[in-house]
Design a protein that fits this description.
Length: about 270
Amino acid sequence: MMVHLPLQNMRYINNGLKVPLLDAIDKFTIIELKHERAENGQNRQSIANEIAFWKRVLDGYRKDGVPVKDEWIAVMKEANGRLWDVEEAIRNAKKDKLTNEEVGKLAVQLRDSNDERVGKREKMVQELGTDFFDTGDKIDADTSLKLPLHETVDRLSITELKLERLKGNKNYASFEREYAFYSKVVDAFRRDGIDVKQEWIADMKTANGRVWDRESAIRQGKEGEFGLEEMGRRTLELRDIQMQERIPAKNKVAFAINAPFYEVKTEANHTQ
């Protein structure tokens, strides 16, 4: 009979560099939604491979005695499903001839829904009592459940931006732990014989920096200052950056190393 580790103040040494549990749950529910709503002949195998990977990660935690609650998975899938609905309306904005003001209203709705999602996730963090960034002094030889390289480069570059732009933030120490963790994941790929190119990280950081700049007004609730029309314009510009710069930067890495799956683009309905 499996004995679960206590939730509060649990000490989990993640020397196998498993994807942090709540990130794994989040990504698992998102790829399930893609399987249900956006799978096609071109991306079917990638989605199947990714679903299998996230299941292995969750099972890895279960084998270690860490609780992986069905309730958490259901909550995150419901939250991500609601985000998907709003994002789909934004994806279809041009096809549906929405005005910038109408897109701005969707952007505010998306931000508020994401804030609710973050709040729900925070409750799970508090219940777990750990961030899974503690790797101990020695990394296990088997790091097969680490975050895929294209996702790692993405997370590393985002965290580097946080360290540069959010000095003085109350969560700064957590950002440092996260950066150290994903740096170790990159090192593990290098030990696997993969030449992790600095240009991949630089390109990803450039794309994420541009995403950050466009998102800032939306995140900070500045629709009263800029107006909904400007919020809508920025949202459409942000979507173009995501589709034309950020996702291609991730997939450049995935394709270069022949990863079993890649970032599946979710286009407007008429392109499915």
